[in-house]
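Reopening this one. Same input as before:
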Amino acid sequence: MKLTLALLRRALAGEIGMDAILDSISTSLFNGQLPEEWRPLAPATCKKLGAWMQHFDRRNEQYVSWIQSGDPVVMWLSGLHIPESYITAPIQTACILQKSLKVVTEPPNGLKLNIKNTYFKMRSDVLETCAHPKYKDLIYVLAFFHAVVQERRKYDKIGWNISYDYSECDFTVCVQIIDTYLSRLLDKNEDIMRIPWETLKYLIGQVMYGGRVIDSYDRRTVQTYMDEYL
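Same output, byte for byte:
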């Protein structure tokens, strides 16, 4: 469209000859009609030239916004060249996803492998962030507890009445809780062996891990583990 307008301007200025295509475009523009040569640039329409130009500008704005800002929240279907293709694309994508091979990460089998996996995912500096003599011991106890609650899921209703998705994030936050309270003991120069067991059991057993539990018997199970381990 830009090229034909430039050629038409040169033809009207006498710089080049006026051929049949340029003459047809000139006549259509003079009569306020859409040139036939421009119709393939947009979906089929009966609009006059002025309305077609407004429609063309809006379509261009949608494409530019799509490129610069990503997929639009609301799609103006009539502004697409072939709306059917856009509607078909999500269906094809869904079919591809349904037929694809799904890969998921699950806890390894067995307490030993589960604990090793937890330590493997832990950053190398985590065990050195706190100088309290019981810090590493508590991290191991937490890793053991984390492995136990994950292992119980494999026994269905015998393990938990309701399945709970405990993840690495739960373990990481609990490590930070232990680090915070033990470091606070060191900073206050108090008896470092006066570990706030009740506070740790409450935050770990009832807030972090117990916060997911909605069954009363499952909650009692978590609390029993906390009382046994801590």
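So the earlier flakiness isn't reproducible anymore. For the record, The first helix runs from residue 2 to 12.
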